[in-house]
């Protein structure tokens, strides 16, 4: 690969796992005359699999955010100079052969890939676009969880299961409840995993309510879920110091 004065761009919108994988492959396979341009509004790559734990355990939140250049080039010897460019911006407009950034810059492309990831509620996904702000979001969740005497998590998927077990493991005296709409936790993985998870939750002292889809009635602070109630179809209404909902 030999860098040229005006290489054609392959633009990747989004900084997801898919976009990182694509950028790595392209950096190892593009011929001369092309380059990869990764456009992502966040300053750092967000590693969401640790967000639930770092919402509970203090002092590790900074580890969840990684510079994009380090990810693309990590363990990847032989990536030539000039083949990769990173633009920290959101895309405001996509045309037939160009993208317009929020800054007003226009990038012409030969090929375009859109890999913006998924959308999910906190703590699986954070709002802040810079590392400092994202760390503050996680610290805010840590404070909320630490201050609440009773906590309910609505949604018994992987994130909900991890969050309640981390909370109860870190704060064994808290009243922790997991509510799930189906009759089996982690239903896409089979019954044996559900049985094992239920055994561990019973040991930890977590209350599990299956087959329930309650109405979440938020308190004064609708953004944080503090001092909220869950209204069940049976007519029962339970109050919690904090409610985190995943549906």
UniProtKB/TrEMBL annotation:
Which positions fall inside the FAD/NAD(P)-binding domain? 9-227
Superkingdom of the organism of origin: Eukaryota
GO cellular component terms, A-Z:
cytoplasm
Provide the GO MF annotations for this entry.
Answer: electron-transferring-flavoprotein dehydrogenase activity; flavin adenine dinucleotide binding
Q: Which PANTHER family match?
A: APOPTOSIS-INDUCING FACTOR 1, FAD_NAD(P)-BINDING DOMAIN-CONTAINING PROTEIN
This chain belongs to the protein called FAD/NAD(P)-binding domain-containing protein
InterPro entries attached to this UniProt entry: FAD/NAD-bd_sf, FAD/NAD-binding_dom
